[in-house]
TrEMBL record:
Abolishes the inhibitory effect of tetracyclin on protein synthesis by a non-covalent modification of the ribosomes. Keywords: Antibiotic resistance, GTP-binding, Nucleotide-binding, Protein biosynthesis. This is Small GTP-binding protein domain-containing protein. It comes from Clostridium cavendishii DSM 21758. One of its GO terms (biological process) is ribosome disassembly.
Amino acid sequence: MRKTIGILAHVDAGKTTFAEQVLYHTNSIRSRGRVDHRDSFLDSHSIERERGITVFSDQAIFEYEDSTYYLIDTPGHIDFSCEMERAIEAMDYAVLIISALQGVQGHTETVWQLLRKNKIPTFIFINKMDSAILTENEILCEIKDNLSKDVCSITNEFSSVINEELIEFIAERDEELFLNYIEGKYSYEVWFNKFIALIKENKVFPCFSGSALQDIGIDKFLDKLHKLTYTDYSEAEGFGGKVYKIRHDDIGNKLTFIKALKGSLNIKQEIIYGDNKLGKINNIRIYNGTKYKEVKKVVAGDVFAVIGLDSSKIGDCIGNINYKPNFEMVPTLSSKVIFDSKLNVKNILEYFKLLEEEDPGLNIIWQEKTKEIQVHIMGIIQLEVLKQVVKERFNLDVEFAPCEIIYKETIENTVIGYGHFEPLGHYAEVHLELETLKRGSGIVFSNKCHVDDLAVGNQNLVRTHIFEKEHSGILTGSELTDIKITLLTGRAHNKHTSGGDFREATFRALRQGLEKANNILLEPYYDFKIQADVDYIGKIISDIQRLNGSFKEPEIVENKFIIRGRGPVSKFMSYTMEFINNTRGKGKISFKLSGYDRCHNEDEIIQNKNYNKKADIECTSSSIFCSKGQAFVVEGENVERYMHCIE
């Protein structure tokens, strides 16, 4: 049986040390490394060893009894959350490490929610119990309060009879077993199998405890993990898998990392994604840390890398797999790349595009007008690491400008936009309805155009052009979002319409509609959770109001309070250190990105951005018409009376 186990945690919870112990106990490595000794097996990159944190997700392999396990170690620092979230795509089960010293921390809750969204069965290991101040029971209560009531402790050995507390816990989650329990009927095998099923269904979450550093509880954990997990992959079907990681080896080969979900894959086999041929498999590698072995065939359940899929992207599904990832961890900051003006900017852009292929969250943008490269990031630490990566891989020295918030734009009403493109020898007209959508919807396309007005092929062209790039708003030039775009009608010419005409007409119609709409600026928001002594409640509430946040009524338990609320990233991103100082390090604060909403200081940002919509020649609302063999331009505010599809 093949199983993929992911190890996740808030930074400094002992995740990598735990992974090291698992590999040692299963004879996958001969000696145990340590993060502080800079010799851990999976933190193999020089940057990781220097900083003492996991930056890149890496895999190891171990055998345990009758199963092969792929172990994926993921970053714990919030700045590398995108890397962590992508690794979740390959997991069958997850192990969430929680430090007994810090308990459930801010990022712990974020990781937990991502695991729940992706329906990954999860085990919890309370680490550092040798140094804990609280008892296991007290920490377990904190986990239940902050993560799930369906957590159960199974630190004690399984015997021929499961202990009474666990029997009752399982029975409460199954009607038939509950009736048997009430009647005094009990079967170890039935209860045990039901427990395994409940774990797989994400209905219960087993919790263990120990100390990775002191090698306490690791053997027991491995034994129970093995007994309580299973996979049922089929090798009989055609191959199917998903791409969860892209890397490049030392000689520049593109490595496409795939989790096989069904069937088998052979070397030299051709790969298809949708209607596109991604390439032919030239090499298959199974990695164990930095080392790998080449194989001729892999099967469902395997995690491996291939060479030959040059057009593959993270999130691609290969074969007959109907799945599209929806990543939540999205960078909210941007920065400009600063480099020596004597260098060839095209080469530098190529380097950063290569990095973007490995980390799509970077979202590398080339600003043609200013000749600048923009990069999207999660935080300052990620920028520092990126600087080191660029130096090591490309021998290039770069700096980064101060980070800025990534804003977006939308509209709050419904309008119709018109676009016409008719220079000599060309013809296309498009009418689009733009209407506001709820936050987080992105761009949605709808089609009400009749085939009598526009052929299906041309209608599909309009849709393609809507999604081929990010569109700019008219307030700051920021990305457009949360808008439903409906094709109402359009027109083509049998003789003159050619490639690119509908692209021009579509973009002009979109821009013309935006210029008539009520446009608003959006900024990213955090959901926050604050816990501290009641002595600090007045100060905390004052801070939240000062930072333009909102909050629910505080919950007060004994001498502690909890406040949940929401506030702009721009205001709260630097609040953590102030909070720690104000509460003398005794409070807890956690943030989770909750999407975009109306900008709290819209006028100020618009003024600072100083975006001139008329000067943006790539985004114009004007249309081009032709009369008596002569093309002429009509400004956006006047185009409606010239449109051919308006009676």
